[in-house]
Structures are given as structure tokens and as C-alpha cells.
Amino acid sequence: MCNCETKAPEVIDLSKLDNILDGYRDKADMLIQVLLKIQKEYNWLPKEALYKVSQALNVPVNRVYHVATFYKLFSVIPKGKHNVSVCVGTACHVFGAPKILDRLEKSLGIKAGETTPDLKFSLETVNCLGCCALGPVVVVDGHYHGKLPTADAEKILADYD
Amino acid sequence: MQDIKIITRHLNTASSADIDVYMADGGYQALKKALSMTPDEVIAEVKRSKLVGRGGAAFPTGLKWELTRKEKANPKYIVCNASEGEPGTFKDRLILKNDPHMVLEGFIIAAYAVGTSQGFIHAREVYTEEIELFQKAIDQATERGFLGQNIMGSNFSLDIQFYKSAGAYICGEETALFESLEGHRGIPAARPPYPVQVGLMDKPTTVNNVETLCNVPAIINNGADWFAAIGHPDYPGTKLFCLSGNVKEPGVFEMPLGTNLKDLLEAGGGVDGKFKAVLPGGISSSLLTEMDVNLDFKTLAKAGTMLGSGAVIVINSDTSMVNVASNVAHFFDEEGCGKCSICREGTRRAAEILSRFSRGQGNRNELEWLLELHEVMKDTASCGLGQVALNVAASAIRNFKGEFLAQVRKEEGVWLR
Ligand SMILES: NC(=O)C1=CN([C@@H]2O[C@H](COP(=O)(O)OP(=O)(O)OC[C@H]3O[C@@H](n4cnc5c(N)ncnc54)[C@H](O)[C@@H]3O)[C@@H](O)[C@H]2O)C=CC1
Ligand SMILES: Cc1cc2nc3c(=O)[nH]c(=O)nc-3n(C[C@H](O)[C@H](O)[C@H](O)COP(=O)(O)O)c2cc1C
Ligand code: SF4
Ligand code: FES
What we know:
The complex is a heterodimer of chains A (161) and B (417). By secondary structure, chain A is of the alpha+beta class. Chain A is 36% helix and 11% strand. Chain A has two domains: 15-70, no CATH class; 82-159, Glutaredoxin (3-Layer(aba) Sandwich). The radius of gyration of chain A is 17 Å and the shape is elongated. The model of chain B has no long low-confidence stretch (mean pLDDT 95). With 417 residues, chain B is α/β, with parallel strands linked by helices. The chains are: A alpha+beta (161), B alpha/beta (417).
């Protein structure tokens, strides 16, 4: 499925935004730090939020979008409730990461970079998470699954609903 | 072989993430000693120790501080580079987690030497736990008067701010890192001028890797002569080697710089399977097919590769070199910033060509073409990323040509000219 069809939730609760933005009024150099907080809160960067950031930090909207689309941790489209990241860095590659990715893609029925239609899982590949001795590594919602046997790849998903 | 631990000496004891544990082992004594010296004396000591940068490029640390200090412009800045993104590198994370105060003490001494009262640390957002521990260490050090105003009663003051990187390998490159700190996209700037003259917010700036800074307290405590006597005569001290790939017990090993690869492999329990090749400096380096080689900057440069940040990735005979080359090419295609056309287009075409080889659909003529592209990128790409992006591909083609030829498209004979 193509991501542009992933539906944004009808109503986005922007009330939490003011708390985040309060400490950063007119602090343009804090743009990335602010976006990180918003990404953490909403799991993506809704358009409305980006416009509010632009106003609060006094940064042109186009620059907000430049940054929001440059960095890997940001997403300007909604992501699933659970984020599954498969490390495909070279150390993990040597340990068999491609097979793990293959199995997860089949089991979720989506390709890396996509979100399941029920918005439950997003699957992505990442380049080295800095724990290569544990390879191959899959991270689900910040929880590390290291030295993962290929056969167990989809089992780790069972813990998340 | 000398068995000396500088940076990992607390690894198996109580975590010195707690300032009391760190101080019980002589922590912050080096800072006290440094503050009793003039900044120029501190710089002279570090220069005499011959410490070079551990971020990968081995630039003399004392000289970098001196060049920054000599600049007239003010304020000056210092940045600790904890962006660690090279696949196969996981040493800075280990230090940040186990010994944040060691990094901090080195950082404060460096700031004193350079002559700045504002420091920044730039770390990957995914290092969540490490960031928390480091922030706690900053708070503890501030409470004890090792940070903040008039440190330990001197007239030296320092404030350190923590910035998280939003996930871009290129932001480890120092000039792209400045862009990230300023809240922009991470696009590297042309150098020279080097950051020592024009750095963060266009002011003179020293950038140091986490591991580099960790050596500083030990040098101040034990003296430059002690440090200079460890390991390699030209590049003394130890190195954290990150051993990964097809080895039995991957991990971080602290050994003298210049340690033989065989000894490192032995420390890691030996090769898992039959040794085929090794990337001694992560995926920015070229493949090496021998095992009997000393891991220092000079020897590896002579062998046509580099030590870089010490990411030693071992590859066994079951692993396809074509797939490794393709994996690396995709990495650089994704991580390049897109500023220069040679890197943007070059990494994209290389990734496409190598993907085709992976699928058994290769065109043999394109192998020569990749080697040529490698030369052009080495000479013309603007930053270190583009210059090294095809090192793995080119060295794989040179050393394992048979594997590539076996993946040439067979049906119809279209590519088989
Ligand atoms: N630790 C990691 O995760 C990674 C490390 N690297 C390493 O980074 C290295 C490349 O880094 P670069 O910064 O491009 O290397 P470089 O050799 O251009 O510079 C190294 C350091 O010395 C300084 N410097 C160099 N020449 C100078 C001069 N004439 N005057 C004043 N200062 C000078 C630079 O400002 C920089 O701080 C590679 O060797 C690679 O191994 C690459 C990717 C990731
Ligand atoms: C693409 C690229 C990525 C880099 N990533 C890092 C990094 O993650 N950490 C680091 O310390 N240096 C990295 N460097 C090297 C820095 O530019 C710089 O040389 C280093 O931080 C200087 O510190 P040192 O002298 O203490 O080694 C990178 C260089 C390039 C070209
Ligand atoms: S070489 Fe590549 S990563 Fe470096 S500045 Fe050019 S496009 Fe960006
Ligand atoms: S390559 Fe996967 S964690 Fe480093």
C-alpha cells in the first residue's frame, strides 16, 4: 500500500502543543529539538503542528518543512501505533538482517517505509543503531531485540497490540 | 602486548555514572591539576602526548586546541561529537553509558585549554538512556562546582548544552553538525576555512570525538610521557576497537593503537567461519584481505585502507561480497545530503548497478565504470562522505571480481559483450 493513502486521524488534539512550544518562543536554533518533542508526542508531525511551530519559533514554514523532511526521525505522514525498525547497517547485514526484514515484510503485509492500513504497525529500515555487537537488531517502540534468530522475527510482534 | 586500559578501566566495576564512584577513583583530580596550569601549559602537555583525534581522521588534538585558542574572534566554542553513525561503530555509546564523567572531565579541561565558556554536545536521539545518564552527570558536576560559574574557585566558567540529533549520519561531519546545532538541515560546508577559524555560528570552534576527550584526564594525571610510551610510537595510546560481523564474540575492545588484527580477532573469540575479508575502519574504509596487519593509521593507509573510527567488521566466506557492496552503496545513497551532484548521482547509480548484480542481473561493463566513478568521487566530492562512498565497492570489485562476474546477467546475452 502506498503511504499517501494512510489517513490522518480526523481530529488532531493540538492542545499538548502549547506546553511544548512555551519554552521555545523565538528560539529558531531550537527547531530540531522542538520537532523531536512533537514527533515523540504525536508519533508524527501533523501539518497544523508545523505551522504552529513556524509561528512560535519565528521560522519560515518552508524552513520548518526543510528540516522536517531532511531528518530520518521525523515523519510528515501519520505513522502506526508501533514503530518497527530493522537495522540494515553493514554489521547487521552480515549477521543476516535482510532475511529478518523479508519475514517482517511478509508477516505484516507491507514493505519497509509503509504503515499497515489499520495504523497499527509502521515498518522501517534504519542504518546502524550503535549496538552492532547485538546484531541483527530490530527495535520496536524503543525496545531492542538483539541477536534475533531469523525464525523468531515475527514472534516479537505478538507482544504489541 | 601491553594490557593497559584507560577508557574502559571502570567497565567492570560499579558504574561511574555516579559522581561519587568516579571521584573515589581519582575523578576530577585532573581538572583540579589542569586549572592550576595555564591553558597554554595544558595544550603543551597534550601536544607532547601526541594524542590524535579518535573520531576517525587522527588530527593532533593539542594542535587543534592551540589553533582555536590563537584565533582573535570571540566567543569561541567547543563541541563534543557523539553523533556516532558509522555502521559498525558503537564505542562512544559504551563510554557515555558507563563513564559519562570521564567524558565530561575531558570536555571541561579541553574547554579551559581552548578558552571558551560555552560547550555543546551533539548525540543521537536513539541513545536515549545514554543521554539521560549524561544529563544527570552534567547536573551532578554542576552541583559539585565542576561546571558552571567559577569552576573550583577559579575564574574559568563553563556551560554545556545538550543537543539531540534527529537521525542523519551526515551530521557527524563537523560542519554538518554545526548546521544541526543551529536548527538547519545537515549540509556540510566547504573547508577550509576549518572550524578552528570559522565554526559554530561562524566562531572559532574545536570539535572533538567522545573517545578523544576521554584520554585527556589520564594524560593530565599521568603526564604526557606516560601516554606517549603506550603502543605505537607515532600514534600512542589505546584505541577502542569495535569488533563486529562474523566473529564469535563481537564487542568493544580497548587495546594499544597498532595492535595486530590477529590479536584483536583472538580477543573476540576468533572468526565465525572462514575469514574472507575485513573492513578495518567501517564502511568508509576499503576491504583488506589479510589478517596479519597492525591496526594503526599509517600501516592501514599504506595498505590502501584506513583505521577511521575503529569499526572492524569481519566478513566470512559465506557472505556475498556483492551483497555487502550493494548494502554499503545503498547506505551512502540514503545518507548523502544531496548537495553535490557527483555524490548525489554517483551514489544513486552505484546503488542501482550493485542491486542489479545482487539479483544476478549485472552488466560486466559497469564494473569498470564503477571503478572510474570511484576515482572521480574521491577527487571531487565536497565532503568525506562522498569521497569514501565507493571505497567498499571498488575494493570488492578489485579483490573479488569473480563473485561479481558470477552475477552477470546470463539470458539473452544482452550484457555479455
Ligand atoms: N565516528 C564515526 O561514526 C564516523 C567517523 N568518520 C571518520 O571521519 C573521518 C573524516 O572526517 P573529517 O572531519 O572529514 O576529516 P579531516 O581530516 O578533514 O579533519 C579531521 C579534523 O581535523 C581538523 N583539521 C583538519 N585539517 C585541518 C587544518 N589544516 N587546520 C585546522 N584543522 C584541521 C578538522 O577540522 C577536523 O576536526 C574519516 O576518517 C572517517 O573515518 C566517518 C563517519 C562516521
Ligand atoms: C560523513 C562523516 C561522518 C562523521 N561522523 C562522525 C561521528 O559520528 N563522530 C565523530 O566523532 N566524528 C565524525 N566524523 C569526523 C568529524 O568530522 C571530525 O573529524 C571529528 O569529530 C573530529 O574529532 P577528533 O579530532 O576528536 O576525532 C565524521 C566525518 C564524516 C565525513
Ligand atoms: S559529498 Fe555527498 S554528503 Fe558530502 S556534501 Fe556532497 S552531497 Fe553532501
Ligand atoms: S549495523 Fe546494526 S546496529 Fe550497527
